[in-house]
Model the fold of this input.
Amino acid sequence: MLSYVIYDLPRGTPLQAFSYQSPFAIVLLDSAFVVLSFRGRQMIDRFLGVLMLFTGLHFLAKAGLAVWVGAGSGAKDYIHTNYALISQSATAILVVAVGLTLLAALVLEIMADQRSESERDTLSAIANRRGFNRQVQTFLGAASHGQHAVILCDLDHFKRINDTYGHHVGDMVIQSFGQLMNESAPKRAALGRIGGEEFAIFLPDTDISAAALFAQALRAATMTLPDLPDGLIVTASFGISPVTSAAGLVDSYRQADLALYAAKNAGRNQVRLTALDEAEASDKHGDTRA
Done:
């Protein structure tokens, strides 16, 4: 419609040039604003927004250039002008660049979604072992030498729950416990279901005594999981170990696993630390056992 309105306007005049180029500029500038206004965008999204912004401004620059150097008196004259060569070349390069960047952003988003799905445990709605390990490595990469804590957790007598109430109820327990972990844990925490009824929590920038208090709160809340059959009370055992570096992560897992087995061997439904850390935490906050 706009082409018909401006068709008879003299070429190279400000009204004709800006009327012709402005719609392209408006569409791209509006798209750039939408892309750049979203928070949490990836680097490629920000690059796409800047590229759209530049491409939109380039259409306005084309209009100014047409007025300045001239665009020919007609279509045949236009083809042979320097303006046509510059205009068409620049536009082709920028539009292709926008298209390729948009395609790259779409591919990366699809890959990220696929990775997220492959690292998520669908039953508990938290990370699986691979996703949990990746999150832990990300935290340690940001603060490799700090005071962190890892908590290993095991739902007590889970096989008995499945055998007595059926696997459907067992699934309900896993779902409810995963939801409880999501609601209870700090935002900056890695949560994972690393086995059938085994879970892990990584708390960055958290000392061992604070981790013990969190585990105690989670242990107490586990016994009140909602929507379970009457008479079913679920308990959990916890083992905690400090993490001071990425190099010592494997040993921290081993120490937390030993503490977890100590909790289970002592009667379950308990929080246990390594022997040295348990003594230190007890001095600060009292006994860590139930």
